[in-house]
Amino acid sequence: MPKKWTTNRDHAKRQQRPMMEDEVVAAQLEQLVTPAVLAQTISSAVSETLEPAIVS
């Protein structure tokens, strides 16, 4: 009777990683997005106030 080969999975890379907590993800996204949103808001407010002066 032929011998069955067993698979050695010690060398294989794990395909799934543990999920991060939703609160951690939300905090990281907020930290990344907030400065960009504020900068865009400020630049659009400044351009709106300067446009009439440039046009006149």
List descriptors.
56 residues, mainly alpha, 1 helix, rod-shaped
Quick structural summary:
It contains one helix and no strands. By secondary structure, the protein is mainly α.
Helix-strand string:
H
What's the gyration radius in Å?
27 Å
Rounded average pLDDT: 79
- The secondary structure category is mainly alpha
Helix content: 55-70%
What general form does the structure show? rod-shaped
Low-confidence stretches: none
Indicate the proportion of strand residues. under 5%
The largest sheet is:
none
Commentary on this structure:
This protein is mostly helical. Helices cover 61% and strands 0% of the residues.
Layout of helices and strands:
Layout lengths: L21 H34 L1
